[in-house]
Amino acid sequence: MRQSPVNRILILLKTDGPQLAAALGSALGISSEAVRQQLTKMAEEGLAEPVTEASSGRGRPRQLWHLTAAGNRQFPDGHADLTATLLATMTDQLGQRAVNAVISAREVETLKRYRSEIDIASDLPSRVATLAAIRTREGYMADHWLEDDGSVILVENHCPICSAASVCAGFCRSELETFREALAASVEREEHILLGARRCAYRIRVAV
After folding, report:
1. pTM for the structure as a whole
2. CB-side exposure of 127: number of CA atoms within 13 Å?
3. What is the pLDDT of residues 78-118, one digit of tens each?
4. Of 177, 176, 182, 181, nearest to 134 (Cα)?
């Protein structure tokens, strides 16, 4: 199905971060005037907003377009309100131990699924590539690349369980451990959506 220009801009801002209007037009193959019309429409709908930032050189300040909170909500968040309410109720009624048990059970099941697809005998970039594909299927809009120092970066541009994780940080700790076990590698989180970053990013190295 052909996507509308607005949806394509939403995806570009979500996956690549704040963008100049000219860069968006170039990526979409449309004129600067056409992309500005779409951005104006998105601003009127509260989906995106321009933010003026100083340029790195002596040129004029740049106007970068960002997603607003409403724009971010255009991407699925796994029944956010219901999940957050259920977790809060479980904590109040059954205690943190019950919530931890649920998280642990989810971790065991998730690790089993990931291990069924990830070939531990393959090299690290291949293992991360497989994990990125799995996470993208699960709604995390994942990407990955190899760094000059041999580490691999895994980024997740969206978190479909963000509301649940904001209520219970155990989900984020569990996912980090799941990555380490599934990849048989050292994994460190360098950017975190819950701490205000626009994405989660992980640096992955061969375990020593």
Report:
1. 0.71
2. 24
3. 555 656 677 777 777 777 788 888 888 989 999 999 999 99
4. 182
In the structure encoding, which two tokens stand for residue 88, read together?
A: 């809060």
pLDDT one-digit tens code per residue, 192-208: 998 989 899 999 999 87
For the chain, the three-class secondary structure string (H helix, E strand, C coil) is CCCCHHHHHHHHHHHHCCEEHHHHHHHHCCCHHHHHHHHHHHHHCCCEEEEEECCCCCCCCEEEEEECHHHHCCCCCCCHHHHHHHHHHHHHHHCHHHHHHHHHHHHHHHHHHHHHHCCCCCCHHHHHHHHHHHHHHCCCCEEEEECCCCCEEEEECCCCCHHHHHHCCHHHHHHHHHHHHHHCEEEEEEECHHHCCCCEEEEEEECC
Pairing mode of beta strands 142-146, 62-67 = unpaired
Q: Are strands 142-146 and 152-156 parallel, antiparallel or unpaired?
A: antiparallel
